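Input sequence (485 aa), recorded before submission:
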Amino acid sequence: MDTLKNLCLRKMYKEIVRIDNSLRSYQQEAKESIFAAWDECDNVMFQMPTGTGKTRLFTSIISDIKVWGVIYNTDAKVLIIAHRIELIEQISESLKKYKVNHGIIAGGKDRNLRPEVQVASIQTITHRSNADVAKSLAVDFVIIDEAHHSAANSYKKLWALYPNAKKLGVTATPWRMNHLGFSSIYNKLIVSNSIKQFISEGWLAPYSYYSINDNSKTHQDITSIKEFDVEGDYKISALEKVMDKGSIRANLLDSYLKLAKGKKGIIYSVSRKHSDHICEEFRSVGINIVRIDSETPRDERRLYVQRFKAGHIDIIVNVDIFSEGFDCPDIEFIQLARPTKSLVKYLQQVGRGLRPTAGKTKCIILDNIGAHLEFELPDSDRTWEEEFVGTIIHSTKKKSNNRFVDIPKERSFEEGSEELLLIEDIEINSDINQEQKESYIWTQKDDDLLATLYSERKCPIEIISTVFNIEEPIILKRLEELNIL
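Predicted structure, token format:
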């Protein structure tokens, strides 16, 4: 009888991985790389851009671990960590969709510690009042969502709780404001394809990127800010003084009316007060816009999101709420109204608009703050390996390199306003069909497992269906083909 301990001693974690036909090819390749990396080390960080399916990927990893446990009749306990309740709920929904039984350990949630898979808030699992619960889990695998946060002290407590567990940190942006890296936490970084490649293959949506020029007054005012918080980002009070002005809010509205009128989108603002003022500006011309922030009651927030997804609300203006984990593929435009020194914030925010969906030709990005002048464009090449190691590199700020594209002027702006210019316009092959479904491909390993579960373990067809994540008729057909049924 094999055990996790024996597996660790033999360094054969790659034996756990299975072919999951519901995954995209790059997700399957990533999964195989992660299991192989666990044969070399304990702590792995995996990078993949926003919108390319990190939650789906680690759900498949968990499914493989559970199947391995069934085959060898051994417990394999998994703990998934997130830092916000919205992310925990999103992960839980993904696990439910793929019929992975699990419990939740978070404030305000009923606990069921019996399932071998638990989804926990980092704040809850590391709190001293939950020390006994945390230790009793005795997990074998820990998966950290949005792992760019894992340099925080609370995550150090997590490492101390489960020193022998295999750990996987997933993030779109392995980047820290101080450039100290993650190599003191993780042993290895696995980097996926670039945003540029994902767009070219149709897995992310193309975009048109508009922005102010580097000699604009708004950009000059932003770069003159000298007040920063403890993390190195701009102080909110300083941002409000610069950004929450009538002329700049008018520019936001002008940009929207000219370049994205009638489209569904998200605006990222500086503060609650700034959001309110933006809403007033947009409502004055009849636009259906709402504000969401950390003080918005959860039920009200959910209602707004539901109405937004249903098309009953045109725009949501928010303060960092939808930077991580928000999934609404038919977002048609993103507007940046909150300057930041964080590459993580920038890529997370623009990434919300890059999920492809039927009928969406491309996303419009309205950069009213000149963020690309600080961080370059969303699809620019980035040296994640350097950031992971912690190499102190020169400032990421780049000149515009005259990348502006001439566009026809549809109307004149009021005196003193700053017109957005087209910086980058990406086109892709319209023949790409990234969601093309293929028939299930059975491998010898699959057939052996199918025979074991059906003939030896006497598992019901509905249980076998959850193991393979395919419909019951396909299972029955394969049993007939193998002369087992």
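Checked by second reader. Residues 271 and 319 are 6 Å apart (CA to CA).
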